[in-house]
Amino acid sequence: MVEGRLTTRERAALLVLMAEARELTNAELRELAGFTVDGECRKKLNELGLVTSEKVGRAFVHALTDEGGVRCQAELTAPLPPRAGYLGGALHVVMAGLHRHFELTGTSLTDIFVLDPEHRVETAYRVLAAKPGEAVGLRALRERLDDLARPVVDRALTSLADRPDVHLRAEADQKSLTDEDREAALVLGGTPRHTLMVEAAR
Questions:
Q1: What CATH number was assigned to the domain covering residues 117-198?
Q2: Which branch of life, at top level (predicted)?
Q3: Which residue in 11, 105, 153, 199 has the fewest CB atoms around it within 10 Å?
Q4: Is the pTM of the predicted complex or chain greater than 0.90?
Q5: Do the Cβ atoms of 61 and 25 come closer than 8 Å?
Q6: Fold of 8-111
Q7: Tens-digit pLDDT profile for residues 177-202
Q8: What is the DSSP letter of 175?
Q9: What does the domain layout of the chain look like in residue ranges?
């Protein structure tokens, strides 16, 4: 049995995954919060059933489980951890305030931290692409996002297409397309688009 008491880093990982409401790579975790989920931290969170970690290529992709969400809710009333520091102490007070709000309104953390479909699409792209700027088929992308309704993914793709670094293109070799590829296409401007490409950040 893995010990259920969490370190500050492990608790922080749960809270970041909860706040983003999407799966995150270690690179994204480092960019967002300044740390990663690896080694014993990853192993413990996985064994406790609080986080799933999938190896895609050479990178891990982490996601909060339902049990992890329950644990985040419990963190709202957890005692102040030792050596929390100024920011840790302030966060502890903020979380206690959130708990009072939820008690009064009958709501929960999941009512505040909602899914951002555009971030989900971008994360799925970066997991599937071998390198930034590589074309990824929408069929593979939709399979990666199979927990999202198609209209949600379509709206996210349409919104992302307005960015100068995002390109939705038709497959040049139409004969290479399968029926599944055609079904997964997104029609923009009257033209079916079959691939997504996101340029590297400058």
A1: 1.10.10
A2: Bacteria
A3: 105
A4: no
A5: yes
A6: Arc Repressor Mutant, subunit A (1.10.10)
A7: 999 999 999 999 999 999 999 987 65
A8: G
A9: 8-111, 117-198
